[in-house]
Design a protein that fits this description.
Keywords: Hypusine, Initiation factor, Protein biosynthesis. By secondary structure, the protein is mainly beta. It folds into two domains: about 20-85, Roll (SH3 type barrels), CATH 2.30.30; about 85-159, Nucleic acid-binding proteins (OB fold (Dihydrolipoamide Acetyltransferase, E2P)), CATH 2.40.50.140. Helices cover about 10% and strands about 50% of the residues. It has one helix and eleven strands. It has one helix spanning about 120-130, and strands at about 20-25, 30-35, 40-45, 55-65, 70-75, 80-85, 85-95, 100-105, 110-115, 135-145, 145-159. A hairpin with a 5-residue loop joins strand 8 and strand 9 (about 110-115). The termini are far apart.
């Protein structure tokens, strides 16, 4: 027993995992899966028959939810795959800075200033034009595996 005080610097999150395991055979189209360490939306699933060594295989085709790149993976259907925790949050757009970052209003009244404008050209033009016209815009932010990106836009009317 010592009477010293210990101070621990916490640099991690609350220990919540970025993914959870799910059996490959239960993952369906329009679900999510991690392929090559990237969170993907499943666009195609095909299952092969059990072969000589007894494992049916699942062939997944997924689109990376942040880069829109197509990725593929083949996994025995009885094995576990990582599935990302994907969250979608709506924020009101307050400002667009000149260096490409956006200022967003959170539900509790704070601002979120660490997000860049989306790389998708049509969405980027919609956001910039709508903001220039003084419309009230709400952006949907998709977050998974420690990454965040603006993925959609809603116009809630003029200011």
């Amino acid at each position: 027993m010592s009477d010293e005080e210990h101070h621990f610097e916490s640099k991690a999150d609350a220990g919540a995992s970025k993914t959870y395991p799910q059996q490959a055979g239960t993952i369906r189209k329009n679900g999510y899966i991690v392929i090559k360490a990237r969170p993907c939306k499943v666009v195609e699933v095909s299952t092969s028959k059990t072969g000589k060594h007894g494992h049916a295989k699942c062939h997944f085709v997924g689109i990376d939810i942040f880069t829109a790149k197509k990725l593929e993976d083949i996994v025995p259907s009885s094995h576990n795959c990582d599935v990302p925790h994907v969250n979608r949050t709506d924020y009101q757009l307050i400002d667009i800075s000149e260096d490409g970052f956006v200022s967003l209003l959170t539900e509790n009244g704070n601002t979120k200033d660490d997000l860049r404008l989306p790389t998708d050209d049509s969405l980027l033009t919609q956001i910039k034009d709508g903001f220039a016209e003084g419309k009230d815009l709400v952006v949907s932010v998709m977050s998974a595996m420690g990454e965040e990106q603006i993925c959609a836009l809603k116009d809630i009317g003029p200011k």
